[in-house]
Structures are given as C-alpha cells and as structure tokens.
C-alpha cells in the first residue's frame, strides 16, 4: 500500500497520473486548506502530522511517499512510527530560501497575487515554465495562495535535525532543481544511510511533467536514474 502526501500549491488530484501507474494500491489524502476545507485555527506542522497518522493508522505495510512540503510532513511522521515499509521523499521542503519566502508573503500582503505565485514557482520551487505552458492553470493556482503562505511559514520555521528512522529511505531530487533541494536531500541520505536518486531532465514537479519516470522511481525500477 502506498500513501502519497502532496506538497504546497498542489492537491491530491495532481498526483492522479502517478497513482494510476503504481502497481500497489495508492491513497493520496487531500490535505486541509483545499476544496472548501479550511486550515484550522492554530494550524502547524503538528496538524499535518496528526492528520497523516490518522490515515496511516487504518492501513498496513505502507510505503510513505512525500513531495516538497508533503515530504517534510512525511519525514516528521515517519520518525514517530515503526510500522512503515519504506519512506520515499521527493525534494522535501527543508532549508527553504527565507528571503524568497518573505518576498512571497510581502507580495501576497500587498495584493499582488501574480507576483506571489511567480516567487513561489520560480524562486522557491525552481520551476520557470509553468506560466507559459499552462496560463489557465497559472490563474487557477492563485486561488490557493493563502494556504500556501501558511504552509511556507511552517516549512521555513522548521530547523533540520538528523532524523531517527527505522525504515529504508529513498530521497529523490530533480536534476534541474538540485541546486535548491539537493543540499537537504544529501543531509537526509547521509544521516539515514538512505539512497539518493536524481531524476534526469526533471525538476520539482515530475509528477506533472514525467509521471511515468516518477512512478518507476518510487517502485525502484527506473533505468534512467543517477544514484
């Protein structure tokens, strides 16, 4: 059984292409702050971890997969469990560019939603093609910015400490976004004895741009990877 924790500025539906390609049954819980479900008062990373525990508690033999902010949530949750089969982290949101996070918040507070999304996509996530390739999606994505801001503040406030894990770990980075997410990924691999995998030609959103490669990576059978 797979459980995928999606990232900020995203939702469960974005992972349907990957889910469809995985051989094991896969659940992608919709996190709060989306589709009419607001973030609660006092929202924190603890909120997310508790929500994820509630999902995992009703499942068995789970491979936990987390992307970006969802990767951070998955990492924290995995440290509190001893019943996972494996942990796969795709560019976990650790060690974010604080200046860029502040720029996002300033743009949003000033009412410039277009600039806020541009900061998120280009400076925080390192993806520069979204606006040109999917202009309708660009406009739709602006509806999620308030939730993204709350999530970014949580990720930016997290201070990495070597995780204590009792599960095999794979950390995935995109070749094009290694400069942003690679340092934290390598720290996790070093501290856990895990495996580092690079997605050739991909960046932070391979679940959108190359779901077949990402699904194969999750299942450990891709032939187009650099370790």
Automatic annotation (TrEMBL):
Transmembrane segments: none
SUPFAM superfamilies: alpha/beta-Hydrolases
InterPro entries: AB_hydrolase_1, AB_hydrolase_fold
The organism's place on the tree of life at top rank: Bacteria
GO molecular function: catalytic activity
AB hydrolase-1 domain: residues covered: 3-216
Record-given protein name: AB hydrolase-1 domain-containing protein
Organism of provenance: Lentzea guizhouensis
Organism lineage string: Bacteria, Bacillati, Actinomycetota, Actinomycetes, Pseudonocardiales
């Amino acid at each position: 059984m797979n459980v995928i924790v999606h990232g900020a500025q995203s939702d469960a539906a974005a992972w349907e292409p990957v889910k469809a390609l995985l051989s094991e049954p896969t659940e992608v819980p919709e996190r709060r702050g989306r589709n009419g479900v607001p973030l609660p008062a006092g929202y924190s990373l603890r909120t997310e971890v508790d929500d994820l525990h509630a999902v995992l508690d009703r499942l068995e033999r789970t491979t936990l997969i987390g992307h970006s902010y969802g990767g951070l949530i998955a990492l924290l949750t995995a440290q509190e469990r001893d019943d996972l089969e494996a942990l796969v982290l795709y560019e976990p949101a650790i060690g974010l560019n604080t200046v860029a996070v502040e720029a996002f918040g300033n743009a949003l507070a000033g009412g410039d939603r277009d600039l806020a999304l541009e900061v998120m996509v280009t400076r925080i996530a390192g993806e520069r093609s979204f606006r040109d390739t999917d202009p309708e999606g660009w406009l739709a994505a602006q509806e999620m910015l308030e939730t993204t801001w709350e999530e970014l503040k949580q990720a930016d406030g997290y201070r990495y400490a070597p995780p204590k894990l009792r599960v095999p770990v794979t950390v995935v980075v995109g070749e094009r976004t290694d400069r942003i997410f690679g340092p934290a990924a390598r720290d996790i691999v070093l501290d856990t004895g895990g495996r580092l995998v690079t997605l050739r030609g991909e960046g932070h959103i391979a679940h959108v741009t190359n779901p077949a490669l990402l699904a194969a990576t999750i299942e450990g059978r891709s032939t187009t990877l650099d370790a």
